[in-house]
Amino acid sequence: MHIDLRQLRHFIALVEQRSFVAGAQAVNLSQSAFSRSIQALEHSVGCQLVDRGRKDLPPTKQGLVLLEHARRLVSGAQQMANEISQFNGLEAGELRFGCGPAPAAGLIPRAIGSFIGRYPKARVQFQVDDWQSLSKRLLNEEFEFFVADTRYFEADPDYLTHRLRPRKWHFCCRAGHPLATHERVSAAQLMSYPLAVSIRPPNLRKVIVDLSGRPDFTPNVECENSTSLLGVVLHSDAIGIVGTYSDALHQARGELVRLKIEGLADDLEELYTRYGIVSRAGYRLSPLAEAMIEQIKEMDQQDEEVCSLAGLAV
Description:
The chain has 314 residues and is α/β, with parallel strands linked by helices. 44% of the residues lie in helices and 16% in strands. It contains eleven helices and ten strands.
């Protein structure tokens, strides 16, 4: 059986795009050339890899097996090329990692900015997603590491984790909101307004559920992008949640009011993030990955020093 890496890349694109037209565009091929590549791959493995009878072209059982191995092979080939070029002193290559929505709101963009200043020839791809999806992509060797909530990985011997410093979450509203002038707000007052929040982090879910008194509580507006949620809060009477990690919090200074909630202790553990860097145990990181991780740690330390000097809550 002869399998070409290019064909594997094309198959991955087809599965991700769910369309021959979009898949061809994703890899910069004509549709006819892309279709021939998929057909040649199917001929090599001796079976059909996608169900052409369905509009969304789902992978067949054989296709799913091939997809798992294809992602590992393509990722491994890319990592090998990266390491060789880096060890040759070119400081080039491609780095791929993932991060959760909260780190993507401030820490990671700043770290990448410093990183590309040091390694201008490097190419960086980072994917923002929830921790479950990031974990799957790490195990599929699509990423070398990710930055997200670490609580589900710290006791697992298959993972290595490095905790970043905790960042505090705050309930907030726009300046001019009916609650903005209150020294303290009761849970009932808070919950009488729409909530525009992310409840993906389990610690935040617990806080909101406890405040609402309803185990099946669902926010009025839910999104994983903190900047988008903040925009909703600034243009309505919705209550939001924002963390000290977020650049959006500083950009909205003067327009945003942090609310103090009665009965909610400032040092409550659930009000703090538990983010960190997660990689696979027993796998060597590329030089670029190690350099990026060190940059993230350095930026995390700088953030702590800036917050301390500014007297901000952390």
